[in-house]
């Protein structure tokens, strides 16, 4: 509708590149919360042409999974169950160097890094505030 002076958003051709999703799999995260996290990841996959790198972690990165929309419905492969620390996630992302952004799905009961070199969104199930990045609540 550009010819009529109307500009509408479109996701046609939109790509996010490589998005890293850090899934908190510490002892405080139950199956119900993992289900909420899976729904959030599915939302990303259905809205954008994206390559996801999913890092499952507690106090260390325990497992990596790669997924893109053509792979079909997402099947989570969680590993972990101990305490929570996001510092190893950020170290991994910075070492790999190919992330467009990082989305951290967590309850927020974690050790946060001081800063990040990649745009970061925290999707939290609690009212904890992260020291940097964008914070949204997952209900």
Mean of all residue-level pLDDT scores? 90
* Strands in their spatial order, largest beta sheet: 3-2-1-4-5-6
Number of strands: 6
Beta-strand proportion: 25-35%
**What's the main sheet like?**
6 strands, mixed
Shape: globular
Low-confidence segments, given as residue ranges, are none
Derived structural class? alpha/beta
Distance between the termini: 37 Å
Assign a percent range to the helix content. 10-25%
How would you describe the oligomerization state of the chains in this entry? single chain
Spell the H/E element sequence: EHEEHEEE
Number of helices: 2
Rounded Rg: 16 Å
Can you offer a commentary on this structure?
By secondary structure, the protein is α/β, with parallel strands linked by helices. The protein is 19% helix and 29% strand. The protein is built from two helices and six strands. It has a six-stranded mixed β-sheet with strand order 3-2-1-4-5-6. A hairpin with a 3-residue loop joins strand 2 and strand 3. The longest helix has 17 residues, at 31-47. The chain is globular and about 55 Å long. It starts with 14 loop residues before the first strand and ends with a strand. The mean pLDDT is 90.
